[in-house]
Specification:
This protein has 457 residues and is an alpha+beta fold. The chain has 10 helices and 24 strands. It is elongated. The protein binds zinc ion. InterPro entries: Ala-tRNA-synth_IIc_core, Ala-tRNA-synth_IIc_N, Ala-tRNA_ligase, Thr/Ala-tRNA-synth_IIc_edit, Transl_B-barrel_sf.
């Protein structure tokens, strides 16, 4: 799209009439077509760019993403991929893919916005204005904004680093907006002023004067915020419903805030950050308990149950700290338990079966011996038994483990045995070398299958 800048002035057409603030669909005529390489053409089949005489699609700008929507020609429908505005000449350049349909200059198409996408974007956009101004009011002094970005899902505001903009302050801001501003159901006021008037009234700074447009479009939620803005907005504050604070990220250069007025998106976001994290914590606790950890986890679980209902960055932070504490605690316990089990198993004489004069099979059950614990034992056995392949298996409630090892002097390819015979007949997965294989399985019954395999080998 960048390439259009070079010859926009040569196009010799009037700027595109934007009707997207008034209507959501319209018939429009093709004035210019460009192919994928940005070359002007008279017809298009496939990917390319189109300029119409008018459009309902909001073009990417002012931090707001481009509208989504579709175009219809002779009952054939294509998606709008993106629309951009040439800021100097005012052309709206529509990126589309017509697939097998041919479009020509002069053709008339029906253009229609994706209303749900537009509504979600408009609501987030309005919430962004209100959040920005309420933050400044709460801070009590001017803080430079480094930029803002939004789409249908969420909005982002970046400020230069200022010590007063903390997570707690933003929580207060969000609370004020949700409890005091949105319920007032303030009606948006949109009007035009001349650039000169905008500068005089401090709506616009001298250096931000726009080229081309003489009039400035102002957006006002009376009593709350007034700003020059060409974007799309909610009609009343009640449309916002509620806003949620998603992310607070501070580095040496900027503070980035991410929020949303889209409840579906908020639910998805916090489910991932809180509920999924809680599941991981529970899984870790379960693992610790199954190995016999003696710890009262009740307080932690109760706290987590409480936290997953609080949708903000502080609850995310706290649940992550809990996750770190729990994993550290359980891992430390598991490591000690593992060392103890390895020591005990090494000194134990295990019952075994000799199969086909070729295999020495040790079957354990009940304890969750990992391969890591079994390995020292099986290595010890293999160093003594020069003529037998050592197979040590462990059947436990969640599956099974197996290690197969042979003495260096024995000439049998275990990798072949595991890849060609054991794995196809069982759910065992794993790998190793021709002299040592480590396997794990989801199914405890696989141990019986391994025994059958050894009998027929
Ligand atoms: Zn706006």
């Amino acid at each position: 799209m960048e390439n259009f800048k070079h010859y926009s002035k040569l196009l010799n057409i009037r700027k595109t009439r934007f009707v997207g603030h008034e209507v959501s669909e319209i018939d429009a005529t093709i004035l210019k077509i460009f192919n994928e390489n940005n070359e002007e053409v008279n017809s298009l089949m496939g990917k390319g760019f189109i300029i119409f005489d008018q459009t309902p699609f909001y073009a990417m700008g002012g931090g707001q993403d481009s509208d989504k929507g579709f175009l219809i020609f002779n009952e054939i429908k294509f998606d709008l991929e993106e629309v951009r505005k040439d800021l100097i000449y005012g052309f709206y350049i529509h990126q589309i893919n017509t697939n097998n349909c041919e479009l020509k200059v002069g053709d008339q198409l029906h253009l229609k916005i994706d209303q749900k996408y537009r509504d979600c974007s408009s609501i987030n956009h309005s919430a962004m204005h209100i959040t920005w101004q309420t933050t400044l009011n709460e801070v009590g002094h001017y803080v430079e904004e480094l930029g803002s970005k939004l789409n249908n899902e969420k909005y982002q505001i970046q400020f230069v680093v200022d010590e007063t903009i903390t997570e707690e302050l933003i929580l207060t801001v969000v609370d004020k907006i949700n409890k005091q501003i949105i319920p007032q159901d303030i009606k948006v006021n949109i009007f035009q002023v001349t650039q000169q008037e905008a500068i005089e009234k401090n709506y616009l700074l001298e250096f931000t004067k726009l080229v081309g447009d003489e009039m400035v479009r102002m957006v006002e939620f009376p009593g709350i915020v007034i700003e020059p803005c060409s974007g799309t907005h909610a009609k009343r504050t009640k449309e916002l419903g509620n806003i949620w604070f998603l992310i607070y990220d501070k580095n040496s250069k900027r503070i980035l805030l991410e929020l949303t007025a889209n409840e579906q998106y908020a639910a998805k976001f916090f489910n991932e950050k809180l509920v999924d994290r809680f599941s991981e914590i529970k899984a870790f606790i379960k693992k610790g308990l199954s190995y016999g950890i003696n710890y009262d986890f009740l307080k932690i679980l109760t706290r987590c149950e409480h936290l997953i209902k609080i949708w903000n960055p502080l609850s995310i932070k706290e649940i992550n700290l809990i996750y770190n504490d729990v994993t550290m605690l359980v891992n430390k316990f598991l490591k000690e338990r593992e060392a103890e089990m390895t020591k005990n198993l090494a000194s134990e004489v295990l019952p075994f079966e000799i199969i086909n004069n070729k295999f020495k099979l040790f079957s354990l059950s009940g304890e969750m011996y990992s391969n890591k614990i079994l390995l020292p034992k099986v290595t010890q056995e293999a160093s003594v038994e020069k003529n037998l392949v050592i197979v040590i298996t462990n059947k436990h409630q969640n599956g099974a483990n197996a290690i197969i090892i042979r003495n260096k002097e024995l000439n049998i390819d275990l990798k072949e045995l595991s890849t060609n015979i054991i794995m196809p007949k069982t759910t065992f997965r794993g790998g190793g070398t021709s002299s040592m294989i480590q396997l794990t399985s989801q199914s405890p019954e696989d141990i019986e299958t391994i025994k059958e395999i050894l009998l027929s080998e």
